[in-house]
Amino acid sequence: MTLPQTVTAGSAFSVPTSGSGPAVLYIVGPDQALRRDVQLGNPVSIAAGDLYNAGEYLAIIVAGSSSSSGELEVTPAPHPDTLSFLATPSRVPVGLHNGINGAVYVFDAYHNLIVTPMPVSFELSGSSGPSQARTITTSHGVAWTEIDSASKQGSAKFIAQAGGIATTRVIDEVPGDPCGLTISAQPDGAKLRVQTALVRDCSGNPIPDGTIVTFTENYNGAQTTADVPIKKDIAQIDMPAYSGATISVASGVVAGNEIRWGGGR
After folding, report:
1. What is the pLDDT of residue 264?
2. Fold match between 82-174 and 183-260?
3. Rg value, the chain, Cα
4. Could you tell me the CATH superfamily of domain 6-75?
5. Nearest to residue 77, comparing CAs of 155, 205, 165?
6. pLDDT at residue 104 in the model
7. Which fold would CATH assign to domain 82-174?
8. What's the pLDDT at 134?
């Protein structure tokens, strides 16, 4: 028999044979095995779709007590049919350099990874800012990129495309950490009404309601701490009006200003 050196996955081909009499052809490879009855001297036809897993195959033809063998390589189809697109994270703070990662694996119609280099385009677009686009050539079947998150909050579409096949993921771009966190205090009877200014991130996006702001009062060696959720862009609390007390504010790892009551700021 005369084997082709390579065959594209899923394609039809034939194997010429010589001699005479009946024989059996076996083709064995990755997760596939074919058996065909052969009349020696006639070509053996392998129909389209019969051999579809890419990899190295061993072909053996058996006639009575004799046999011969050869190797055959099945390569992935050259045109993409499916893109496996991994986009992380699905929720990311705004204004984060290289904060969004995208990786694309390119498969043919038979789920073989196409290892031949090909361009993959990535585009991140949304209502909160200009779109970002770039093209990456696959290496060993995968293309990978990093893209900055937008400066304004909102939902963005992350699109990957190769060979006319496109797939989309949605990225939720949310406000970052509070920026420029400040408080002020006003007397309210025997207490102080302590309130933040409007809480924003460094790009001016409002921090979501429910985000915790921590107020701390230190007086005469004692410390009082209270966690207060933001409501309608601010957080506020009533604290004891001790003369000489210091009151500070923080949210997560972000610290704000400090007030010294009755002793100047």
Report:
1. 43
2. yes
3. 34
4. Immunoglobulins (2.60.40.10)
5. 165
6. 97
7. Immunoglobulin-like (2.60.40)
8. 95
